[in-house]
Amino acid sequence: MTEITTDIPRTAEVTDLDCSGLLCPLPVYKAALVLNKLEEGAVLRLVTTDPGALRDIPAMARQRGDTLVELIEEGATQVFVLRKGSSE
Amino acid sequence: MTTITRTQLDSDRSLRRYDDVRGLLPDVANPSPIVRLNHVDPAGRAETYLKLEWLNPFGSVKDRTAAYLLAGLAERGELDGKEIVEASSGNTAIALAALAALAGTRLTATIPDGVPDEKKIILRMLGAEVWETPDDLCPIDHPKDGAIALARSLAASEGGNRFVATDQYENLDNIRAHYETTGPEVWAQTEGRVAWFIAGYGTTGALVGTGRYLKERNPDVRVVGVEPEPGHRLPGLKSFKEAKVPGLWDPSLVDESVVVGDEGAYRVTKDLWRREALMVGPSTGAVVHAAARIDAAPGDVIVAISADSGMKYTSYFGELLGDEGTPAI
């Protein structure tokens, strides 16, 4: 997997989920399961390789009321940084 | 020393003695029963029969589908040591889980919203992995079919090496199951008098396969599909106003569609338990309720599919009953 860093520091509050090789909606499903278990304000760093995630993950975040903090694309890999809950 | 040699008893259907549970799967020589309704009389003087699919070994009409889906995979060499994945409101998954275990593999089931806990627990008892899936998992591409989309993505992920999808919504073996078993059974059990065949919309396999067989025998047989209202609570049935129409669907085989609401379906379900002593599931209430709306003539023979029993819906029935049947103190 390509190592990608974001502005969110790797602290105990950041949870990583690698969905490389999984096709949508599997990454959506797994991300939602992880987000359900996180505390409000906690961060999920999600790695995907299916281009469908570029539409599905932001839609999921909107639908759930979570915040897409950052999206990094590097080659065929996408990293979504999601914060549980709205940014307001 | 005396050696005692015991010979194994051969399977013998006439004695109801089987080598394993798969011998109980229905076919024209071993049909699921049809039982006439005598008190809940949905269609005037017509003779209405329910085909009690819940007496199949894994408890539903989907036993036929699951057996054919698995046999098809095996015949085509697609099973190949893989695990099975299927999107199911429960009944197909239950039969697949049981048959998969006998075939030495395992089922992962993606289950849509609203399936009762009883079915999920039965699946886990059978060794299946259960993925509860919100209908709106994919709001963009699959607004009401999240479980189907998830099953397909599981099958395609990991290079397609871990799972094989039985795909009851698109797999022609689903139609073949009903064309080769349900249709001939209904024809034989009614001695060719069947005038109406009624089943719910789901995968449409039972409607299309049975309907095709019956219309080949007698083009005047009328096939009726029962559709729930959008937002319904009738597991196993699908409203095509909110769900994708399955690839198996052949509208040329269905003469009319009847839309049924939850209230009427559950009221008739309760009637069937209390007045016919038939402990059916809610989708049976829906098809019998629909039978009241068709234009059957006196003496017409109607056969409706009773897809499953009510034993998997007791939590729903508890809500329906409220305090009914408890002491009024």
Structure report:
The complex is a heterodimer of chains A (88) and B (329). Chain A is α+β, with helices and mostly antiparallel strands and 88 residues long. Chain A is 27% helix and 31% strand. A 4-stranded mixed β-sheet of chain A has the order 1-2-4-3, with helices on one face. Chain B has 329 residues and is an alpha/beta fold. Chain B is 33% helix and 16% strand. Chain B has helices at 62-75, 91-102, 117-125, 146-156, 172-189, 205-217, 262-276, 282-291, 314-321; strands spanning 34-36, 47-52, 83-87, 107-112, 129-133, 163-165, 194-200, 222-228, 256-260, 301-306. In chain B, strand 3 (83-87), helix 2 (91-102) and strand 4 (107-112) form a beta-alpha-beta unit. In chain B, helix 1 (62-75) packs across helix 2, helix 1 packs across helix 5 (172-189) and helix 5 (172-189) packs across helix 6.
Topology:
The complex is a heterodimer of chains A (88) and B (329).
Chain A (H helix, E strand, L loop, with lengths): L13 E6 L6 H12 L5 E6 L4 H12 L2 E8 L2 E7 L5
Parallel strand pairs in A: 1-2
Antiparallel strand pairs in A: 2-4, 3-4
Chain B lengths: L33 E3 L10 E6 L9 H14 L7 E5 L3 H12 L4 E6 L4 H9 L3 E5 L12 H11 L6 E3 L6 H18 L4 E7 L4 H13 L4 E7 L27 E5 L1 H15 L5 H10 L9 E6 L7 H8 L8
Parallel strand pairs in B: 2-10, 3-4, 3-6, 4-5, 7-8, 7-10, 8-9
Antiparallel strand pairs in B: 1-2
